[in-house]
Each structure stands twice: as structure tokens, then as C-alpha cells.
Amino acid sequence: MKKLLLVLAIIFNLNISWANVFVPPGAQISELLWDENGDWQLEISYYYFSDGEITYDSVVISTREHRYLLTLPVTENFEQGIFILNKQQCADSFDINLLGDSIFIKTYDNDYHYYSPEEHSLIFGDFPNSTIPKPNTGSSIALVEGLNRWFVMDASPTLGQANTLEGCTGTIKGTVYNAKNETVNLMNRFAFNFDFRTTETGSYSSNLTNGNHKLTYIAYDVSGEDYFEWFTIEPIEITIEPDLVYENLDIHITDPNFLGIHKEPENHPLKIYPNPAYQKLNIEMLLPLEGQNMEILVLDMSGKEVARFMKSFAKNMELEWNEHFPGGMYLFGFWTNNTLIQTEHVLINPFK
Q1: Within 10 Å of residue 236's Cβ, how many Cβ atoms?
Q2: Cα separation, 104 vs 32, whole angstroms
Q3: Is 349 a residue whose pLDDT tops 50?
Q4: In this structure, are strands 40-47 and 80-86 parallel, antiparallel, or unpaired?
Q5: Are residues 331 and 231 in the same domain?
Q6: What is the predicted pLDDT for the residue at 246?
Q7: For residues 327 and 286, what is the distance between their CA atoms, to the nearest angstrom?
């Protein structure tokens, strides 16, 4: 949660004093296993928060047959805590079905008012809409974080500790090529499940989660600011076993749009202002550019294209839009001769 607020602060150029910011506890299921005695162990990671009057320290855990109220131990504000709930603690008042179940967790304050904006859930085994099988003895279902957060089968449980990639991923290695069969050497990050960078020779190493994969797209952080776009690749089909290394797994990016992506120069050729903007941007050309026209692609923060413009080169250009852009952050990409020359995050304010 602290990381999320910090990212938002950077995007919107806010000055934040942590002492005056409310951070919700964000309780979530981080690991589930059955021990050698056949008893379940449920790991909950959370942020504890108290403003002196209201304390957000309680969670209600629900399965298809039970509900259980749990008060979490105190931690320092903004510090993550880990709590292990097990069958012995709950006796007959709460249980989890090994064959399959749905587990939901909600956060409440000390007056039992529901706070957390969303439930965190795990649905596994033979339960309808399950996303993962039941864990075998010696393994667990663990929450891992990469390009997203998701549950994986973990052959090396780390109950009571922060989850690692050991036991739930394998390693893939190879070389990245573009549509011209040239090796790719770019400064920003690629990603499948987890992010990685290429070396000067185009080689890479990355993790993939256990199981069967058919990879048809690769993500690339075009702007270098955690804004990933997806590009087509030659399909790769592979089954990943935990902790194994798979060599010579080359990646061939077939998407022609990727050919226009190069390392952005340290000195940007364009000055873009104002930012925030209302219905117009000024574009000042600071360095000479080849070509006669500039294409401007506008994406929202989900990666969806919302507008596309064409401008003739001039020392000073104005970009006006008639479309109604809801207030928020957008990524503007500036292209000439099918080459991306600059990206710019622009905050569009719908109010003058």
C-alpha cells in the first residue's frame, strides 16, 4: 500500500507527508498449505493502522461453510505483518476444505465497520470458478508478485516468511530478436510473468511460473516509467518445472510496431507543455528531426488507444483535441518515420 501511494505521488507530482496519510491495512491471503498431520495453515499478510481513535486491525475470513473473526497483532504503521492461522487455533469454529474451497477476507475497524475497499479471495481445488488446483502434501498455494499478483503452486513453502520465487518458478534464458532478426538491446524492461532486461548482446534471463505456458505476447516498458505495452512474438510453448533452467529459449518479436522503438536520447527532441493540460498541448521542436510529419498516439493508463493525431513539422506546433478525455493520466507517444522518438506522461485536467 505504501508503495502504491508513493507511485501515485510520483505520477501526480504530489508532496506527501506520511504522518498525515491514511493507509489501509490491505489484509490478503499470502499462502495456504496442509501439513504432515493433514491440518491446514493459512498465512495472512497485512498492514495494521491506527490513527489514535480508529484501529483497523480485524479481518473476517469466510469459506463456503464458515465465518471467522480474527484480530491481528499490532505492527508499526506502514510495516507489513504476517500472521499464521491454523486448524488448531480455530477448533470446530472454522475450517477449510482440502478438496476445494473459496476463501474471502475483509478488513474491519475496532467497531467492526467494514473498511477494505475490496475482498481478497482464493478459490481453489474442485470449487466452482477455481483458479488453481488443491495443494499436495509438501507444497502450498502461494501469492507471488511480478507484472501482476497471482496464486501459484509452490514446491518450497515459506510459511511465516515473505514468499520467494524458489519452488514456484523456473528460469528461461536465450536471446531476444526483432522482426528483422536483429538482437535487441534496449535499456528498459521486458516481461512475461516477471520483468527482465536484455544485455548488450540481446541475451536475457527471466522467471516463469510453474506449469504449461503458451506465450504469444511480450510486454515492454516503452516509457521506462512502469508503462508496459504488449507486442506479438513467435509462439513459445513450454512446461515449467520448479527451479529448473531452460536454455536457448529465444524470443522473436514479430510485431512491426516494435521496430520503431529505440533507446530514447538523453536530450529529448521535443518540449511538451503545459502539463497538466486542458484541451491543447504545445510542442516545441528542440532538435532537428528527419521526415515531414509526426504521428502522435495517445493511450490511457490501461494501454487502450484513445486518440491518434498527425501533425506537419514546424518549430512550434499546437495539438488540440475535440474528443472528451476524462480527467486523468495519459501516455503520449511521438513517432516519425515509424520510429518512436519520445514518450510523455500528460495529466489531462477536464477543468480549466
Answers
A1: 18
A2: 13
A3: yes
A4: antiparallel
A5: no
A6: 98
A7: 28
pLDDT of residue 74: 74
- Judged by phi (left if over 0) then psi (alpha if -120 to 50, else beta), residue 52 lies in left
Q: How many domains does the chain have?
A: 3
pLDDT at residue 222 in the model: 80
User: Phi and psi of 257, rounded to 5°?
Assistant: -65, -25
Kindly report, residue by residue over 225-279, the tens digit of the pLDDT. Answer: 777 888 999 999 999 999 999 999 999 999 887 876 765 555 678 899 888 888 8
- pTM (2 d.p.): 0.64
Round the average pLDDT of the chain to a whole number and report it: 82
Inside any domain, residue 211: yes
63: domain CATH number? 2.60.40.10
Q: Which long-range contacts (CB under 8 A, 24 or more apart) does 86-94 make?
A: 86/39, 86/40, 86/41, 86/42, 87/39, 87/40, 87/41, 88/39, 93/66, 93/68, 94/61, 94/63, 94/66, 94/67, 94/68
Task: List the grid coordinates of 350.
Answer: 477536464
- 79 in a domain, yes or no? yes
CB within 8 Å of 351: residues ≥ 6 apart? 278, 327
- Residue 225's nearest CA partner among 103, 90, 345 is 345
C-alpha 103/C-alpha 63 separation (Å) is: 5
Asked, for residue 194, whether it belongs to a domain, the answer is yes
Residue 328: domain span = 270-348
